[in-house]
Amino acid sequence: MAKSLDEDLEIVRELANVLNDTGMTEVELERGGLKLRVAKQVQQTVIEAPQAAPMMAAAPAAPQAAAPAAAAPAALPSSGEAVRSPMVGTAYLSPSPGADEFIAVGATVKAGQTLMIVEAMKTMNEIKSPRDGKVVEILARNAEPVEYDEPLVILEA
User: Fold this and answer.
1) Contact criterion met (CB below 8 Å) for 152 and 103
2) Rounded distance, CA 63 to CA 72, Å?
3) Within the chain, which residue ranges are assigned CATH 2.40.50.100?
4) CB under 8 Å to 82, separation ≥6 — which residues?
5) I want to staple 140 with a disulfide (CB 3.0 to 4.6 A). Which of 91, 126, 127, 135 is the partner?
6) Which stretches within the chain are classed as H helix?
7) Class at the top of the CATH hierarchy for domain 80-156
């Protein structure tokens, strides 16, 4: 028995509702000779929102509040080398909550010394100093998202 177009569209609507209700991004249904796949495109802009907030006309309240802190990476000091994030994740400036931070502005660091941690997919990745130097500025904020290649720390010889 052939189904009408209205019945097929109703199935698509129901599958789309399943996606919205569950947070899934794709669902596939195979029944008889009909194979139907419904997917929604997911944009991962949550992490980028604080950086883009000053240019957006209608940004959410939380990213606007974070915008002043995110604006700091745009104004890099004229001297020094930026240590950049090798991945997208969340920056942590200390090894555990309540512990002292790995580095402070004005501190001297050695090559290979841990500067901070970037958590990505539940994995803690130590960000190490590429060389000896003095910490001029810490651009990353504790427990805040960072983007790939975003400057985290400025080191001076």
Assistant:
1) no
2) 14
3) 80-156
4) 76, 139, 151, 152, 153, 154, 155
5) 91
6) 5-22, 49-52, 61-71
7) mainly beta
pLDDT at 39: 72
- Looking at residue 125, its amino acid is N
- pLDDT tens for each residue of 62-117: 444 444 444 444 455 557 899 999 999 999 999 999 999 999 999 999 999 999 99
Give the SS3 label for residue 77.
Answer: coil
**Sequence-ordered strand ranges (E) for 40-95:** 81-84, 89-92
Is the pLDDT score of 133 beyond 70? yes
What strands, in cross-sheet order, belong to the sheet with 81-84?
Answer: 81-84, 151-156, 133-138, 108-109
pTM above 0.70, yes or no: no
